[in-house]
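chain below, 260 aa
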Amino acid sequence: MNPMPELTSHLKQLRLSGFLESLEARNRQAIDGHLAYTEFLALLVNDEVARRENKKLNTRLRRASFRAEKTLAQFDFDRLPHVNRGQIQDLAAGSYIRENVAVLIAGPVGTGKSHLAQALGHCAVQQGHDVLFVSQTQLLSSLHAARATGAYERRLQSLARVGLLIVDDFALKPLRAPHDEDFHELIAERYERAPTIITSNLDLEEWADAFPANRMLGAATLDRLRHGAYRVILDGESYRAPRPLSAAKERRGGAKAAAD
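prediction:
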């Protein structure tokens, strides 16, 4: 009698239908390898655990909203010789997550701040943490929209509970009311409770300039961010530098300019 129809039904009832994906292959392996029943069962269980973990990983990656798959393996450390690689590896291992402190990444445009922030986010996802990557503009727009629909507090608490929040392009534009207050509230809610990564084109000493309308509020916000924070400075040339024109293009460009 073929047990598969009944077995399939029972596995689905027990929410173990993932077993079916490797059952045939593992059954053949058990027969060929003369495995004990417990060894055969262990193989199936390990397959199911790996399948579920991979599903969770893919879900966390999707929810993180990374712009692209940026990893530490892809990060060009050679272009930034002054970066402390040991510090970056320590952060990748999750030191700041365990301490519930911020990582403040500053440097000129094009030095890899967003790449590094997302790479650290990928490491956190691999370690089982929920991550959200969002620009400052997107973050504050979502809070503003929530206020308009009466869902501000719910949205604020949702952001406050994110395992790791990565805010990209901080202070790209000055914060005006009520955005400066919203940002302060979020940082205050996460302070000493959850880690946050912030990237900015401004030098760390200039971050207070992001709060031109309320310097005191800015000081209170930055005081929380800086407390115990890891600071990473990326100092180098932009990797977005345009490619040099070929000699032929340069000649054509010069001829066109002369004609004009």
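The chain has a mean pLDDT of 90. Residues 37-64 form the longest helix (28 residues).
thats it, cya
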